[in-house]
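User: Predict the structure for this protein chain, please.
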Amino acid sequence: MTEFEALDKTRAEEWSGRLSGALAETGKVIVGQRDMMEGLLLGLMTGGHILLEGVPGLAKTLAVSTLARTVDAEFRRIQFTPDLLPADITGTTIYNRETGDFTVKQGPVFCNIVLADEINRAPAKVQSALLECMQERQVTIGGETFPMADPFLVLATQNPIEQEGTYPLPEAQVDRFLLKLKIDYPSRDEERLILERMSGGQLPDVDRVIAPEMVRELRAAVASVFVDEKIKNYILDVVFASRDPEAAGLDLAPLIAWGGSPRATLALTQLARARALLRGRAFVIPEDVKAVGPDALRHRILVTYEAEAENLTSDDIVGALLDNIEVP
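Assistant: Here is the predicted structure, written as C-alpha cells:
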C-alpha cells in the first residue's frame, strides 16, 4: 500500500490488532508504563525520534530494548559521557599498515534502534553528530556517505534530577525530537508486580510481532489516515494560540516565552494519525489530538521567568491550551 491510497476500516483494524499485539508482548516484561510504551510505538509508527525524561530505574532502557525485540530490530545502546567523541558514535577511518589504505569502521549508530543514554552528559559536538544522523539519515566518514538503516529510530534519555556537569540540549535541537515522554514512578501495586517478576533474574521472552521490513508499510498506513479540515484547523488553532495567546482569547501571554514552531503542527498531525491507527480507526478525532498534545508540545513551548516563579511548567501551559481551545 502506498501513502496515496486511502486507508479503509478493515486495514486499520488489522494494523491495530498487530500493534496491540506488540504492546501485549512488551507487557510481558514492562510492568505498567502504558503511556511510555504507546509513546515509543507512536515514534516507531511515524519515524519520529523520541526524548525520554525520567529518574533512573524506571525501565527506560529495558523498554526500548524490549520494543526492539518485538520488531526484531537491531538495537544498540550508547552511554553518553563527557569524554565521548563524535567518531565514537558515527565511526571513523582506520589506517591499514599492510595495505597502506584507510578503511571505514562504522560506529554504533548504524543500526535500527539507538538508545542514547543520558544524552545531556556529552558535549555539544557529540550531540550535534547524533542529531545530524537523525535529521539527514546519513553519515559521511572519510569523504564517503553511508545511509542509515531503515527503519532508523533514536531514543534519547535525560536524567532530570542530576544536572551538575551536564550539557543541556539547546531548544533548537530539542525541537527535532518528534515527542518528549515524561516517565513517572509506578504505582504500589505495579511495583509489587515488578518485585515478583524481576526477582527470578531472568526476563520473559517476547515474540516478534512486526518485522522490520513491515515498518515502511506501517508508516504509509499512518500517512493514509484521514484528517478532516476541521481537525487540521483545530491543530492550527492550538499551535497558533501558543504563539499569540491574546488573539485566541487566552490570558497566557505573560507565561509563554516562545510558542510552537511549524514542527509542532506537523508533529501533532503525525502523532494524531498514528494514535488513530493504534485505536483501529482510519480517521482522526479531536481526542487523538488532545491525547498526543502534551508529548508533542511540552518541549516546544518555552515558559517565561514569570511562569517559573509561579511554579508553572510547559505541561501546565499545554494543558491550558488544550482545555480552552474550542474543539470541533
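The mean pLDDT is 85.
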